[in-house]
Amino acid sequence: MLKFVLLPLLCLMFACPAAVAAQSAPPSEGSPASVSASQGAVRIDADASQLRGEYKPVWNYFGADEPNYGYAPNGVKLLRELAALPGSTTSGGKPTPVYMRVHNLLTTGNGEASLKWGSTNVYTEDANGKPVYNWTITDRIFDTYRAAGITPLVEVGFMPEAMSTHPEPYRHNFPKSGGGGSIFTGWSYPPKDYAKWEGLVEAWSAHLRDRYGVAVVNTWLWEVWNEPDIPYWHGTPEEYDKLYDYTAFAIRKSLPEARIGGPEATGPGGDRAKEFLRQFLEHCARGKNAATGAVGAPLAFISFHPKGSPHMVDGHIRMGIRNQLMAADNGFKVVAASEFKDLPIIMGEFDPEGCAACGGPNSAYRNGPLYGVSVAEEMARAQQLARMDGVNLKGAVTWAFEFEGQPWFAGLRDLATNGVDKPVLNVFRMMGMLGGDWIKVNSDGALPVADILRDGVTGPADLDAVGTRTAHEVDVLVWNYNDDDVAVAATPVSLHVAGLQGDRVKVEQFLMDGSHSNSYAAWLKMGSPQKPSAEQVEELEKAGRLEKIAGPGTVAVKNRSAVVDLNLLRQGVELVRLSW
User: Fold this and answer.
1) Closest residue by Cα to residue 198 from 292, 109, 265, 125
2) CA distance 518 to 510
3) Backbone phi, then psi, for 211, in 5-degree steps?
4) What pTM does this model have?
């Protein structure tokens, strides 16, 4: 358990400079001329007449440590792109919201951002210790979200300097961390006065209600703190429960219908993390509420953070999807065993590893298609595990946004670099093209999820798919994933789609792989410039868009079925759209 908890912390405390990743050898992208042969041909069967329930996406959540980057020019551009990702509605006609979760919304400072740092200066005290509230910076953050069409998942944290029980040192200097080698400085401590904390949260939530209106703010989600089972919280589990009680009570005074959740704990990858989650659920069910004296605490959703653990093997990166999915499964099972088994679960950070702002050679995979295909794999498998465990998975937050003032393709875990979209964003674009109802899909190249939980994906690739349909359209998302980022020849795929109408259907194909929808490949091809010209930037922006590839255009429908042949590289993702 200590290993599970400490590995992400070591990355947080002693990260290599981000720029190192850009100088490292790029990960293998795969190519038809690869030295290794692919696995045999794969057949995928999708049946549009076999519906499997309403399509409810879980991928439409994002987050970042640095809230102030959101209103920078590149941040505004990216927020608008994220809001535009869902290209379809559910079968019930409801638009799909895109949520944003950020740290440091209550942190003391002048609004200057840096890696793993942000601030808003909402709370100070005058010479007599009287609270002074200032909403200028948080208004700018939420105004930006509102203008872009983003729905906040409001993280209530961290501790203002004047309220912290251990205020000095307060601001860390990541990656050259302060405070004795830790980023967990004065902002990570409990409040000196819970009444003042309650007053701050009540005043803030009332201000947001008055600024944006009850109807709007009631669509938001609220959660308390971040990872309180590790040094993000320098208090006991019981003290976190107390913080939760006071925070929820304060929000509900201003917004009686607010949806509040937690505990945003790590893992759970072992007994300690699972026990933290269990005790929190027990407190919400039967504990004495520190703020009201009543039994229990309001709980609208349950949150925790499954993470993977990639590492280098024989000169290439090997992803740790096994760890990530095992942690998700553990959390699902804890919830399933509780009286809250039907509550929505939001995996508040669901990522390949623990530190978005850490760089170094091991992080270069974030620039290319491996990061993108891992998202498709993780999201689909997490939904499968949730169904197996009988829980209600509502969302999975990808902890990635953008970093200002960093080198091009620095190996940071972000969705865009200097305003240019990275390959991973095109996987979200393809997932956003799904909609309507799930349909039955089977792939003979898919691995059993039990095998992935036991061994990861280090032998044969996991070549799998999901599909949806609306009245006149079927969309099938196909991916070819392996933990090992090595060059392998493309795999032939025969996609058979049943339940179609008419004599012919229109076929559109969208692809992200080593040479498609891939700004990183374009950047490498032009010599990895750190000061690209205006023409080069334009070329990179074009390469960062989702690419529609040449295909048959239409295919014949026989006995209500059609066949589309693909040739999919390892670490590739393709969306096939059939319409009539």
Assistant:
1) 292
2) 12
3) -75, -40
4) 0.94
- β-strand pairing of 344-347 with 301-305: parallel
Burial class, 124, CB count within 10 angstroms (exposed 0-12 / middle 13-18 / buried 19+): middle
Q: By C-alpha distance, which of 206, 395, 204 is closest to 301?
A: 395
Residue in 167, 182, 156 with CA at minimum distance from that of residue 244 = 156
539 and 463 in contact (C-beta within 8 Å)?
no
Q: How many CB atoms lie within 10 A of CB 31?
A: 16
Q: Which residues contact 147 (CB under 8 A, 6 or more apart)?
A: none
Q: 105 CB contacts (<8 Å, ≥6 apart)?
A: 67, 120, 122, 138, 141, 154, 155, 156, 157
Helices (H), 24-126: 73-83
Three-state DSSP class for residue 201 = helix
Instruction: Decide if 278 contacts 334 (C-beta within 8 A).
Output: yes
Q: Are 463 and 446 within 8 A, CB to CB?
A: yes
| 504-538 tens-digit pLDDT | 999 999 999 999 999 999 999 999 999 999 999 99
Upstream peptide bond of 552 is cis (omega within 30 degrees of 0): no
Burial of 29 (0-12, 13-18, 19+ CB in 10 A): buried
pLDDT at 90: 53
- Per DSSP, the residues of 492-515 read EEEEEEES--SSEEEEEEEEESSS
The answer to whether 105 and 94 are in contact (CB under 8 A) is no
Helix 271-286 vs helix 2-13: crossing angle, to nearest 10: 100
Quote the Cα angle for 113-119-121, to 5°: 140
